[in-house]
Amino acid sequence: MTRVLIPTGALGLGYDRTALARGVAAGPDIIAVDGGSTDSGPAYLGRAVSKYSRATTKAEWRDLMLARAEAGVPLVIGTAGTCGADAVVDWLFEITCELADELGQSLRVTRLYSGQNPSEIAQSFAAGRIAALPAAPEIDADTIRACSNIVALAGAEQVQAALATGADIVIAGRTTDTAIIAALPLARGCHPGGAWHGAKIGECGAIATTHPASGTIQIDFDDTGFTVEPLGATARATPYTVSAHMLYENSDPFLLHEPGGVLDVTGARYEALDARRVRVEGSVWRPGPYTVKLEGARIAGYQTVSLTLLRDRRYVGQARTWADQAAARARGDVAARMGLSEDDYTIELRLIGIDATLGALETGGALPVEVGVLAIATAPTEAQAGEIGKILNPYLLHHALTEEEPMPTFAFPFSPAEVNRGALYEFCLHHVLAPADPMDPFRLVTEEVGHG
Q: Is the entire prediction scored with pTM above 0.85?
C-alpha cells in the first residue's frame, strides 16, 4: 500500500493546517501538491511568473516543508509557480533555499525542468513529430518561434526519475495534474488503473468531497484500487463526489489521456466504506503511444483599458446603444488620425452589470443602479493601444445619445483614465510531441541546500 497526502488543490489557495497535521500523523509515503494550471490564462506562461504572491507561497511552502520533515518523506510539487516555466521553477527553488536556512533544514532538492527551446520545437514540427489535439489552432514554424515560453507536460515517468535522485523535495515544472500523485504508486507496483484514477480524484485536494474548502485528503493505493479519505473535520467523500470528479476539467467522464496511455473508468465501482471514505476498483489503464502535451504562449498585441461609470437612468437604460455609438465614433477617429484599419486593432466596451460576462448570450433582467463600462483597446504595439485609449477618452466622459441634448458627464474612478496593461498573451500550442525517450524533453538538476 502507498499513501499519498495531498494538502490542497494548489499551493497558494490555502489549506487546513489541522487536517494537514492529521495527515502527517497518519504516516504518508509522499506529500504531493499541485502548483498551478492554465485556468488563469496565458499571461503567466507568457511572462513566466506566478499568479500567487511570493509571501503567500512562502508561508504555505514553509508549513509543507515542516510537514515533510516531520513525516520523513518526499515533498513533490508539480507545475510550480502556476505555469511551470523554468523561471518559476527557479523562483520556488530560491524560496526553498531561503526556508531551508531559516528552518535549519539540510535538503536534497531536485528540479525537474519542462521548458522547451522554441527553435528545437519548430524543428520537431518540421520533422513531423508534433501532432495537433482536437480544436488546436493552426501553427507553423514562425508561430512556434514567436512563443516566449513553451512547456511540455511531464508524466509519471519524469516525476519517478526525479524521486529516484533521492530528493527530499522535487520542484517540477509543468506536469499533468495527476502525475505527481500517480508516480510513486506506479513505481511501487500498485494497480495502474487505480493509480491514475486515484490521482485524478486527488488532483484538486478536497474538491472531490463534501467540503472542498477543507483542502487536505489522503489516498491509499494498492494492488486492486484506491481509497479516498478527506482529512478535514467535517468533510466526507461519497460515491457521488468521487465519481463526479472525472468530469472536472475533462470532456469525457470515462476516459482520461495521460502520457503513454489512457485511463478508462467505464467499469469503475465506487463503494462507501463508511461515512467518510470511498473505495474504488475496476479502473483500467490502457497503454498507448508515448506523447507529451505542449503548451506555448506568445504576444498577441498590447492593451490599454479604461473604466467609466454610468448612473444616469436614461444612459443606464440605453447603455448598449451608448456604448456602440461611442465605439463607432472612436473607430472613425482611429481611421482618420492613425491610419489603422479595423483589422489592425479592436475596441471593446463591456458593460459590467448588464452583459460583460456573457455578452449576447445574456438573458437580461432588471436594470442596475449603475453600469461600469470597461473599455479595452488592443493593438499591435503598446504605443498604438495607448493612443486608441486616449482617443476613446472624450467619448467615455461626454458622449451624448443625441446631438440635441446637453453634453453629459460620466465618472472615471481614477486618473489618468487609461491604464496600459502591456503585452497581451495568447495560447498558441495545443499539440503533442512524440519524444524518442520520455526524458528527452526534460532536465533534472539536483542540489544539496540548507544546513542541519
A: yes
